[in-house]
Each structure stands twice: as structure tokens, then as C-alpha cells.
Amino acid sequence: MTERGQAVTLRQVAAHAGVSRQTVSNVINAPQRVDPVTLAKVRSAIEALGYQPSRTARSLATRQAGLIGYCLAGLPGHSLYMDQFLHALTEAVEETGRHMLLFTAPDGDQGLTTYANLIAQRTVDAFILSDTVDEDPRHEWLAGRGVRFASFGRTWPRQGEQPGPWVDVDGFAACAELVTRLHAAGHRRIAFVGWGKRVMMGAGADRLRGWEAGCRRLGLSGRAVYSDSDSMDGAAHAAAALLDDPEPPTAIVAVSDLLAVGVLSEVRRRGLRPGHDVWVTGFDDSLLATSVEGGLTTVRQPTAEIASTLVRLIDNAGPAETGVLLTGRIVARGSAPLDQLQQR
Amino acid sequence: MTERGQAVTLRQVAAHAGVSRQTVSNVINAPQRVDPVTLAKVRSAIEALGYQPSRTARSLATRQAGLIGYCLAGLPGHSLYMDQFLHALTEAVEETGRHMLLFTAPDGDQGLTTYANLIAQRTVDAFILSDTVDEDPRHEWLAGRGVRFASFGRTWPRQGEQPGPWVDVDGFAACAELVTRLHAAGHRRIAFVGWGKRVMMGAGADRLRGWEAGCRRLGLSGRAVYSDSDSMDGAAHAAAALLDDPEPPTAIVAVSDLLAVGVLSEVRRRGLRPGHDVWVTGFDDSLLATSVEGGLTTVRQPTAEIASTLVRLIDNAGPAETGVLLTGRIVARGSAPLDQLQQR
Hints:
alpha/beta, Rossmann fold, six-stranded parallel beta sheet
């Protein structure tokens, strides 16, 4: 930058080196086209002036915006984990010499125009999708138009394969493992609180099936109830139905940290002690998990690995590599002290 | 977009209209230079082909990237509020026909290079700063180089005025009002838990001074203690010092929701009841505030107004308009039921 804070221009470099602007552009974008003497003269001018090639000049030449687009979700419940994810993703993108462009768009089909415009105006080169929902319209739409993307999350298509590369955390395995460890700690009535059909997301069904499989494997019959909204209040209401049972559960696996906190509030409201009378687990390891009294046992997602894998898949998805499933790690805290040797 | 998902190019429009590419570029960027007949012919070609001007072509002509840069903070405590802010900011930027570019940078002087490169490479036109700290190096550095920016937050310079336009929430007034309302509810010993010198931020000092002024005005003498870290545990530790007093406070004003949750955990650990034995207030109205049992009384920041004001200031800061101070609104919940008519 010059002392006046002005960016050194390509024109100034050309003048300094006594060549045309096209020549300078070639030196930067296609040096193989330039004879060695001119190459040296221009490079020396670039260094002397401290010229940094304008991203826009390079992008016109290479037809690359150097930007990857990411759509911010509007849902408050997700924001607890997604901000950690956003940070990891931004860093992973920057590692490849690009930048993150953040945008907002309506959910579903309405939002597709926004994606279309960003590509048509060559504002971004590719997208990272998240907050995926069942039968998400974006994946097929983008894939059909040859737009590069990678998805954090599966879309659980009813038929065929999910279009485009994806990364996800194995919620099934994590919830099955939670059941196994709760059983090992002595629990025999292990319930599940999930998202109801109105807010149904494939990730929720995946975790539910893991809980189911864990129970079945151990000969347990557990009850599953559903929160009518992605909220603490909805989960508290659902937990009330469980705890009203003549034979209530002694452990409750909740589909997310947010719902787990709602379950905990209902447990406490009845004068029951989390981690003693009723054990409760969540999913995400968000800041909520350390904010509740005693801490919330939950599943931690490998955020950095998710982010770097997504960026890698945008550039280098192998021909047979469409999906990468990563493992979540159980973090035991006060709401379900799984790491203590305890018989009930 | 063509059916193959390829963006229609400027070259295709030129060919379709039978003119040079420069002419098409002029029609888009400088229509006043083009004769009416040609103007009509090219515009009609643009419409027929569905051409959307490449952001990069326009930005070369106008020397505008069309992007505003925002740096993600690495601090987990802030993320609870900042994600709401990020969403509002992205929307406010999009309202002006631009997009948000997200980036990461080290704190302090080390990060300045990142800002410099983004400007030098013309990747962004301006910055929105947040997570401002005392004597923040960025404001003066950017202002000195003529880079446009607006700051969410004050930097509390020891001398002179803060460089560049800023928006902030009046923490002083909010905390003074909290004291006034706690006093009206019957409290006479109202303490403060703030950030210690190691994590001192001007916003914290501003809120502390508001609490101080509120107490002084009502003839109260209150005790202030400091958390040694921006964390719940640090706040719990600080609250312990208050509650160990022979005459402990009956109300505690915490500098943020995160610290308030730490204070609450210490209150409960001693078997005391929040909102009964000890009243506790926070600041931010983050998701934490609704996640604790009974809810946390706190100060809500006018997020949408902050965001739109920041964007406006980047483009249109009036000559005398350097700072905009907005009012926070107290939201009363279970931890300090200020809206109930109650005498202690």
C-alpha cells in the first residue's frame, strides 16, 4: 500500500517497468507467456512498489471469485453450535487462499434464487451448505446446475443418493453408545426426547434410531416422545409426559443440548436431581452444556475436522467419495456422570 | 444462467448485440457515455440472454469490491450474542446491495496485516469492527490509511477522540437503571461482578460506572468484585467472595450473561434461591438468558438497529456524526423479578 493508503495499481507497475498493462497481467496470471527478461523487469517493479495483484483482476483472468459462500441460518437453536462451526469453517477456507462470503436466504425453494444469483454474478465459486433438512431442495438444484458445493449434514433422500459430497457426524452411533453407557451405569428405563414431525430433521431421526438400536440390543424397551418445537419449553413439555408415567425413565437421551436443557428444567421443577434421580444427555457440546448447573453430558462434534473435510471435498471429492461420516465423542458431566463407577 | 448452469458472459451479450465488449461494459457501468440506439440494443440483448453483470467486471470498472469485511472473534463468551448480531449485520449489508466477507485475524497488532491485505487486494471496500477492546489498534490504523469502517463498540481512548464512526449500547445507563429498579424492589446491598483487569474491556468499565452512579445517587454503598477470566467459573469464584461477606449483597449486577450464569451457579451451590434470596442480573439477552432455570434478567441490545446504523455510517457518516449511542432494554425474568410488585 502507498503511504496515502491507496493500493498500488497494475497501471503503476506497468509504468514503472515500462511495459503494457497486459504484460503485467500476463506476468501475474500466465508467466509462461512472457520472455525471461521482461518477466524479471516486471517482477522487480512489483516488488519495488509493493504491488499486490487485485483479487478482481486475477479473478477476471482466472474466472474464479476466490470466495466460498455460506448461508446463515435463521434458527436460534442452532446458533449455539454453529458459531463454533463458522469459525472453524472460515479458517479452513482461508487455509486454501480463499475467503468466506456470508449471506442470508429464505429457507427452501424460495432461497434458491439467492444461490443462483451468487453464482450467476460470479460472486462465489462454490457453496458450503449446512442446516440441511430432509429433502433439502438445494443439493439437487445445485448439483443439477453443475455448481460446486459440499454439505455439512445429510438430506436423507427417500430415493436414490444424496447429490453432492457431504460430511456428517454419526448421530446413530453416538446415541447407541449413550444407551450402552447408561445401561452400564445401571439404567434400565432409558427414554428419548426428539424433534416432532413439524420440526423433523433427518439428523433427529438418525439419533432416534441409534437410541432405538442401543435399547433393542440390550433388551430394553424405552419410550420416545417429541417436542413440538425446537425449544426448551417444548422439550420440558415432552419430558413431563415421560415423568408422569407410573414407571418413569431413570435416564433421558435428548436429541440436542437445547432440548436437554428443557428436559433438565422439567426434572428440577419436580424436585428431582439431574445426575441422581434422573440422568439427562444432550448433543452438540455447545456453550449451553457448560452453562447449566453441574454441566450437561453431551456429544461433541469434531468441528475442525468437519470444516477442513468440507473444504477439501469442494475441491477434491474423489470420484467414489460422496460422504464422509465422522465420530462424535461423548463428554460426561454432571447431568449423567457416565465416567463414575456407580451402580444404581 | 444458461441451461448448462453456465453464467452468460459479457462476450456473449456483445456478440448477440453486435457490439464490442467495451460497449457492453459502458452500458452497465457508464450508460451516460453510450448513444441511445446502442443503449437500447445492448439492454435488449442483456434481457434476452438473462445476463447478470459479473460482480468482478463491475468492480474493476468501479473499483468497488461490493464486499464489507467482518472479522470473527475467537472468544467463546461473546459468541452467544454475536451470532444474532452477525445475522442482523449480514442482512443490513445485503440491503445495500453488497455482501459480507467473513475473515479471521489474530488479535491486536498482529491482525492488522490481514486487514491491510484485504484492502490492498481490493477484496473488501470497508470493514465493520466489533469485539473492540481498550486502545484497540485497528481504528487508528485504518483511519490513518483512509480505509472506511464503522465500529460496534467504543475503544475508550485515554486521549482524544475515537477515530472513525461507532455505534454502541449505553451500558452505563442500563446498569444505572438496573440499580434504580433493584432499589425500587427493596434492595439496599447491590453488588457488581465485572471483568478483571486482565480481561478489562471498556464496555465493562462503562457498565461498572453506571452501577456506581446508580448506587451513589441512591445513597447506597455496594461492593464490586472482578472475575479473573471471561468465564462462568471465574464469576462463580468472584461471587463467592461477595456471598462470604458477613453482610452479603441481596442483589448482584453482573457485567454479562455469561458471568451472571456463573454467579447463579454459586448462589445455587449455597442453597440460596435466585430471585428470592439473591437477585442476579446479566447483560446481552443471549440464549443463555432463557436457558437457566427461571430465566435470567438481563439487558437486551437493539441488534437490528445496531446493524443498520453501522452500515449507514460506513457510507454516510455525517461530518459531525462520529458516534451513535443506543439504549438497551431491561428484560425481567426469574433471576430478578423486577416487574413484580414486591417489597423485601
